[in-house]
Design brief:
about 550 residues, four-stranded antiparallel beta sheet, oxidoreductase activity, about 60% helix, two-stranded antiparallel ribbon, Di-haem_cyt_TM, Cytochrome Bc1 Complex, Chain C, alpha+beta
């Protein structure tokens, strides 16, 4: 073995130490030399991991002083403005953390900011995975785990936001109870069980507390470990480039390069989180006061990741509410409160399998797609972003109405129309942009790039010289995978197909086969094919001019 292929001396020493005791040196050394691709977007998942670690550490600190009790007491503490006010022990203990524990307010701010960053990084990370097709075979299971982590993170954030029992969090719990009550037949039973009686009951804080600090974090931790174990086994996806294939990864070894980079990045994430917590105040519960069922508030918004549910509840009409045998079915709460969330998360979970069924692509993919090369998928992703963003804005329709002096009814009507029309427009625009970029890529691959040099031919014609693209660019452009296109004629042949005995073929006989053919046609019909295109080599004249002709004049 050559010297260059050996592991670093420090790594060999660790391996020998382990091997002397557990005979695992070879396995450990091999895993520590695992290669990770280099790209900034791959660090988004690490931000989520580091934020989760910060959440665990700060959460343990906060549990030392927080009292998850709804027993009412008269406050007599360091925050004098609320002295003599009747409040729950949960709210009083949170005030004690803020004003009576050294560094307590900063730690609570770090905990809250880390939660927001955790969910935000999950969202952006999942968008990166979706748009690049990194969820495809063999990573469908890891995608499902990621969807589960995302959904649990939102629920965990909602429960944590509700624990201080201040006025905004109490209003959030009230909305949660309203969504529970919208469930036909069982809604009232679930509400009475969770709250320990009529709202607000006496048990909701203590029960949310156990879910927040024990059950959901335990599940999240298990899912994150499973996520990284599968990632470690299957290797990371990588973007197309020179030397990168489905069987070869180009990047930095785990030890020492990637480990040093990851360690430094953790402290960077921690520093940003602490900086935000120190200089940007969030959720100042001491200004809101304790929650009471008779108090109301306006102008306050939930944490950003729950804004879409707030917006859906605000703009969804109640025209469709009905009763079954005397039992009310409040569609105006049930659909926006649970239906839309089920649509979002259910759609994310099903999409890898649906796309594979539509395209018939059973190949393993370790090289990520460029979003432009999957225009329908990219268009659907943009449509989802537009849908979410409009619902998020609708959650502040009262603030928008007040700020811009617009009727609240008109803002509501606008968002009711926009959440239907907006995603359609987003899909069309994104798809057309992707197709335009595909055509430009084909032009670049076939003719090279514009050099800016204008030449005049002996005939007097002026043309621009195109030069050869770099090897890296050519490799990226050639990485576009050809998708089997199903045109209208193919669909007609499927529907009209019969076997040797004149019996209609199963594909034509079944609704499933016909549906798949039409979806595949829709998915692939506009895709720009690169088949037969050869990379431009050498300096030549564009527009079919002969290379051997000498230019009469150069400008």
């Amino acid at each position: 073995m050559s010297t260059d292929s050996q592991a670093p001396k420090a790594l060999r020493g660790v391996g020998n130490f382990i091997d002397d005791r557990f005979h695992l040196a070879k396995t450990g050394e091999k895993n520590l030399r695992k290669v990770f691709p280099n790209h900034w977007s791959f660090m988004l998942g690490e931000i989520a991991l580091y934020s989760f670690i910060i959440l665990l550490v700060t959460g343990v600190f906060l549990t030392l002083w927080f009292k998850p009790s709804m027993q009412e007491i008269v406050y007599d503490g360091p925050y004098e403005r609320l002295n003599g006010v009747l409040m729950s022990e949960a709210y009083a203990s949170t005030l004690h953390i803020d004003f009576g524990v050294r560094g307590g307010f900063l730690v609570r701010q770090i905990h809250h900011w880390a939660a927001l960053i955790f969910v935000a990084s999950l969202v952006v990370h999942m968008l990166r995975v979706f748009f690049t097709g990194a969820f495809r075979k063999p990573r469908e299971i890891n995608w499902l785990i990621g969807v589960a982590i995302f959904s649990l993170a939102m629920i965990e954030g909602l429960f944590g936001y509700s624990l201080p029992d201040d006025l905004p969090s109490g209003m959030g719990v009230r909305i949660l109870q309203g969504v529970m009550l919208s469930l036909p037949l069982i809604g009232t039973y679930i509400s009475m069980f969770l709250f320990g009686g009529e709202f607000p009951g006496e048990d909701i804080i203590s029960r949310l507390y156990m879910l927040h600090i024990l059950l959901i974090p335990g599940i999240l931790l298990a899912l994150i470990v499973a996520h990284f174990m599968i990632l470690w086994h299957q290797k990371h996806t990588q973007y197309p480039g020179t030397g990168r294939t489905n069987k070869k990864v180009v990047g930095t070894p785990m030890f020492p390069g990637f480990a040093v980079k990851a360690g430094g990045f953790f402290f960077f994430v921690f520093a940003v989180t602490v900086g935000l917590s120190a200089f940007v105040q969030i959720n100042p519960i001491h200004l809101f006061g304790p929650f009471t069922p008779t108090s109301i508030t306006s102008g306050l918004q939930p944490d950003w990741y729950m804004g879409f549910m707030e917006g859906a509840l605000r703009i969804f009409p109640n025209w469709l509410d009905f009763q079954i045998f005397g039992y009310a079915v409040p569609i105006g709460v049930l659909v926006p409160g649970l239906g839309i969330m089920g649509l979002v998360f259910g759609g994310l979970a099903v999409w890898p399998f649906l796309e594979r069924w539509i395209t018939g692509d059973q190949r393993a993919h370790n090289v990520a797609d460029r979003p432009r090369n999957a225009p329908v998928r990219t268009g659907l992703g943009v449509a989802g972003i537009v849908f979410y963003g409009l619902l998020w804005l609708a959650g502040s329709n009262d603030i928008l109405s007040h700020t811009f002096s617009i009727s609240l009814y008109w803002t509501t009507y606008f968002f009711r129309v926009a959440v239907i029309v907006g995603p359609v427009i987003g899909f069309i625009v994104a798809k057309r942009i992707c197709l335009g970029l595909q055509r430009r890529d084909r032009e670049t691959l076939e003719h090279g790039y514009e050099s800016g040099t204008i030449q005049q031919l002996p005939s007097g014609e002026f043309i621009e010289v195109h030069k050869e693209s770099s090897a890296e660019t050519v490799h990226v452009l050639e990485s576009k995978e050809e998708v089997d296109r199903i045109d209208a004629e193919t669909i007609a042949s499927i529907e009209a197909a019969t076997d040797a005995n004149g019996v209609e073929a199963p594909a034509a006989r079944g609704l499933k086969g016909r549906l798949r053919a039409r979806l595949a046609h829709w998915y692939t019909k506009d895709n720009v094919s690169f088949e037969g295109v050869e990379a431009h080599t050498g300096h030549h004249l564009h527009h079919g001019a002969a290379e051997e002709k000498e230019p009469a004049q150069t400008h």
